[in-house]
Amino acid sequence: MRYISTRGETAPLSFKDAVITGLAPDGGLLLPEQVPDVAAELAGWRGLSFQQLAVEVMSCFIGDVSREDLTRIVQISYGGFDAPEVTPVVGLGDLTLLELFHGPTLAFKDVALQFLGNLFEHILTERRERLNVIGATSGDTGSAAIAGVRGKDRIAIFVMYPQGRTSALQELQMITVVDDNVHSLAIDGSFDDCQGILKRIFGDLEFKQRFHLGAVNSVNWARVLAQIVYYIYSYLLVAEEDEALTFSVPTGNFGDIFAGFMAARMGLPVDRLILATNENDILTNFFNTGRYRRGQVQFTITPAMDIQVASNFERFLYYRLGEDGEAVKSFMQSFTDKGEASVEVDGPVCDLIEAISIDTDATLAEMREVYERHRYVLDPHTAVGVAAARRLPRQSRIICLATAHPAKFPESVERALGGVSATHPSLQGLDRAPTRREVLPADEEAVKRYVSEHAL
Prior knowledge:
This protein is α/β, with parallel strands linked by helices and 456 residues long.
């Protein structure tokens, strides 16, 4: 399997080269040259453990890592999760929750980033190379990425996050990791500022090559690959043979829902994907109108979704525009220059994706309703997805992705449920642990200077 750029100007890469490269040199995102059809394999995959299924699914996309090595990487990556199923499903009345928060940092990002960290280590050890990973986070990616690579000899990680715009616990999960190879960078700006700096740094090919830069954000294809697994796994746990299910996905950067989109392209029977945003509704507006228009970031109780520029959107756009790299490049250039771009619509933008925005009041109300009915505490991001599932007409059974443990958002839980606490042992005492972070302006050159001074 080879990997190509959404913009069509990068020579095809092997899987391992795609992982190390991260963002394509032409500024596009990497995708598999062909999408494998696994529809005929689904029945035979029923009953496999998460780890066994991961090996089967990932093998469809990987041609240069042996099955033995892949199995070892998968086993190491998911051995520390606190649920035997890794991503268990839980009944919640007429909905099913897919719990994705049983990893070391209690967020769905762990499923991908534990795998990516160990995959990085395998490739770098094999090649006797080093890598300086740069990421941008609106909350959960940073701590999960840090947990995936902390202490690894051949990797240093630099994580930018918007100062004061993550939850207190999300920041503590990053800055209390004081390993020598970990650098938490508090940027005086928004997540979109952090993401813009990241893209511009990767666009400086000389700087990228000189400092051996790699990507840990969901621009890295390996992250999407790991996320495809839990769509197929949950489907096989819940669905009858050939039954089509709907997945409701709280969405900010479009990576998680894009994994579901890819699973459907692989032959998984998916009726709909519900794209659920908060007040930052650039994606909702696009899927309802065809117009992709940047607005002002609104800061909410769901900080991982406080995004106006979704970094994985370009991968969907590639398929929406007929796999035409020139058309993708033109669309993205228009968006960069004018802050907006459009696709022609004659009906739905995408037959598979239905989009809706859920505001803060509705999010808190959903948290209250679910607790009153089921004594189950939702984190606010998951509540956005559950509320979206309830508001749209039902056509099939729904799996709602539960993307974070509620203990990561105690202020929102208290605001919604008053007197109900959500705790987790891994978060106890973080506020008393030693911390290290660097505060930087929202300036590409300032970040470059820091990276150049601390890179491996």
